[in-house]
Design a protein that fits this description.
Largest sheet: none
Shape: globular
Number of strands: 0
Order of helices and strands: HHHHHHHHHHHHH
Length: 336
């Protein structure tokens, strides 16, 4: 396959993901009268709190479409493809919402068309700016051949999202009423007593790289990290505390064990970056350093994806994982 064919295959693959996520379980009905009523309802502008989560899901899904479209553009034409990607997102969104008018179980909405299009534009702009930044940084000081902020920013965001909505620990506590501060007070009271059983040991290898990459970013800018790594550890701890506290406002359980583990892991990573980064760069040079970085980053990504590291051997449970719902971003979060 030529480079162009690879690009087109990538676009087609992600477009298929979008269609599966938006048209699965459509239960298509040819009743034109019912479709007309659903179309009129779709044009009625109304917003509820659940629309915020739906909008976030739409932005996440269609931002990937815009990002993939620009990333698979021919070199030097990324900025020109932003408009095409946005128009594609608009066309796909209108088509999908139009088909949902023929579904008795789906809800078409003009708001969805807007969030889908905005998501596509945002994803395309983000990737185009990233590509332009990487081109400008070519030849500049770098540990891995690309600016450290690419890895630090994305990994730090992943760690913060885990603090906000920890996996398997985001179910609201029952019978909690009142405003956000009342709910926070209740969940903090229920967070005691402390228990070793609630310490998420797997968070240590997941959060430590965030501190390590932050030190790498500082070093790449030529800044001494002797006095900085404690500041990185402190800032990371504050962000983790804010993340855990934020989901406490929604009545989700807060565990001090998890909060302290995540904060200490970031501090450990910052300490390791300060003391080990120089020796690692001396022992690993050129292609060897690139391979080591790729293997290490891939191993950490596997830890993220394989949580909670429980092996499932039953065939029916394994087959159940391959469903259309798995293609919908933030689906489980929207249910909660």
């Amino acid at each position: 396959m030529t480079q162009r064919q690879h690009f087109l295959a990538g676009r087609a693959a992600y477009l298929a993901v979008v269609l599966i996520a938006t048209l699965s379980d459509l239960h298509f009905s040819g009743d034109l009268a019912a479709a007309s009523r659903r179309f009129a309802r779709a044009l009625t502008f109304s917003l509820e709190w659940r629309d915020a989560v739906d909008g976030l899901r739409n932005v996440a899904l269609f931002a990937g479409l815009g990002g993939v479209w620009v990333a698979t553009s021919l070199p030097g034409r990324e900025q020109n493809e932003i408009v095409r990607a946005t128009l594609l997102g608009l066309a796909v969104s209108i088509t999908v919402e139009g088909l949902q008018c023929f579904s008795p179980v789906r809800t078409a909405s003009l708001v969805d068309v807007t969030t889908n299009t905005v998501g596509t534009l945002g994803g395309a702009l983000t990737v185009a700016l990233l590509i332009d930044t990487l081109r400008r940084a070519k030849g500049a000081r770098s540990y891995l051949g690309i600016p450290a902020f690419v890895l630090t920013g994305s990994y730090g965001l992943a760690a913060l999202c885990e603090a906000l909505t920890p996996l398997f620990h985001s179910e609201p506590l029952p019978n909690i009423d009142g405003g956000p501060l009342d709910r926070l007070g209740i969940v903090l009271h229920l967070a005691l007593p402390l228990s070793w059983a609630h310490v998420p040991w797997l968070d240590v290898p997941l959060f430590a790289p965030a501190g390590f990459l932050a030190i790498m970013l500082r070093r790449e800018f030529g800044l001494e990290t002797g006095r900085v790594w404690p500041a990185v550890a402190f800032l990371g701890a504050m962000l983790v505390l804010a993340g855990h506290g934020w989901h406490g406002l929604a009545g989700l359980p807060v565990r001090w064990e998890a909060c302290m583990t995540d904060a200490c892991a970031i501090g450990l990573g910052a300490w390791a970056g300060h003391y080990w980064l120089a020796s690692l760069t001396q022992s690993l040079r050129g292609a060897m350093r690139a391979r080591a970085a790729i293997v290490s980053y891939a191993a950490v990504l596997c830890l993220w994806g394989l949580r909670p590291l429980s092996l499932e051997t039953r065939g029916d449970m394994i087959r159940g994982q391959f469903s259309a719902a798995r293609f919908i971003p933030l689906a489980s979060l929207a249910e909660r």
